[in-house]
């Protein structure tokens, strides 16, 4: 088995693009990061890794600075080699994410290699949009514009402090300029935010979704998510999103507007 790391998105696309496109829903995270990197819009340089066996690509993963390793489809036999590769390149790696069996397997290999420990930190559910049901929520949805940058940056700082997810604040202006950030307005003021990834292979992923704590409980997150979902569906895209398995509120609202669970993912912290 051979591992080919690269920070050149075009090279990774040549090596693994066809492999990723066989299951774009499963690979939504890798594909969206790759697409932004190919467009020159990636905020940080990502290390992409393709896994080869007998001349065929059999797996893929990636790691962006400041984030965990993200595992795509992989044979379990590749995990020891991948753990060794990342241990050599990124000895202070903080975590790994993927389907539960792969993420745990990587964490075990890492711990054995480094003589450390690991722990499961969170579970996530990947949803796909079925039949969209628009909620009755006061307000309207609109695309964020340049005058919204400061507000969205503040919200992303708060979101990261609360949950550790969301855009880096410095990424906000470029994402707004690219038309990838949406707001829900009520009584003339923004009350909730939803991002989207650029459509690739017929799919787009919604996220992050954020409502300030003082404005929660009014359905604004449902409103903005459904609004963006309708825009994407009307453009011909299939739509997906992730949510924390431990958050009953987000799982409830996404199911209510028509999202259907597809696959579980897990995050493991590496000591």
Task: Summarize the structure in short.
The protein has helices at 9-21, 28-38, 79-89, 100-114, 149-163, 172-177, 220-234, 248-256; strands at residues 2-6, 47-53, 56-63, 69-71, 95-98, 118-129, 140-143, 181-186, 189-196, 203-210, 238-244, 259-270. By secondary structure, it is an alpha+beta fold. The protein has a 12-stranded mixed sheet, sandwiched between helices.
SSE layout:
Blueprint: E1 2-6, H1 9-21, H2 28-38, E2 47-53, E3 56-63, E4 69-71, H3 79-89, E5 95-98, H4 100-114, E6 118-129, E7 140-143, H5 149-163, H6 172-177, E8 181-186, E9 189-196, E10 203-210, H7 220-234, E11 238-244, H8 248-256, E12 259-270
Parallel strand pairs: 4-5, 10-11
Antiparallel strand pairs: 1-2, 2-3, 3-4, 5-12, 6-11, 6-12, 7-8, 8-9, 9-10
């Amino acid at each position: 088995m051979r591992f080919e790391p690269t920070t050149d998105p075009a090279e990774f696309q040549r090596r693994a693009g066809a492999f990723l496109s066989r299951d774009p829903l499963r690979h939504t995270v890798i594909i969206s990061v790759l697409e932004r990197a190919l467009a020159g819009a990636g905020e940080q340089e990502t290390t992409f890794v393709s896994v080869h066996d007998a001349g065929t690509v059999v797996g893929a993963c990636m790691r962006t600075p400041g984030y965990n390793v993200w595992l795509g489809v992989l044979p379990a036999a590749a995990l020891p080699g991948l753990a060794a590769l990342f241990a050599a390149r990124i000895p202070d790696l903080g975590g790994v994410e993927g389907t539960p069996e792969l993420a745990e397997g990587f964490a075990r290999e890492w711990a054995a290699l480094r003589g450390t420990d690991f722990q499961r930190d969170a579970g996530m559910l990947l949803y796909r949009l079925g039949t969209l049901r628009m909620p009755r929520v006061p307000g309207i949805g609109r695309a964020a514009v340049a005058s919204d940058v400061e507000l969205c940056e503040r919200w992303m700082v708060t979101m990261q402090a609360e949950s550790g997810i969301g855009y880096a604040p410095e990424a906000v202006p470029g994402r707004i300029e690219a038309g990838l950030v949406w707001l829900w307005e009520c009584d003339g003021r923004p009350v909730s935010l939803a991002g989207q990834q650029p459509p690739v292979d017929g799919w787009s992923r919604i996220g992050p979704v954020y409502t300030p704590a003082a404005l929660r409980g009014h359905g604004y997150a449902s409103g903005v998510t459904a609004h963006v979902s309708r825009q994407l569906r009307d453009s011909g895209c299939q739509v997906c999103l992730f949510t924390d398995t431990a958050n009953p509120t987000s799982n409830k609202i996404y199911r209510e507007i028509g999202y259907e669970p597809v696959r579980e993912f897990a995050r493991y912290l590496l000591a």
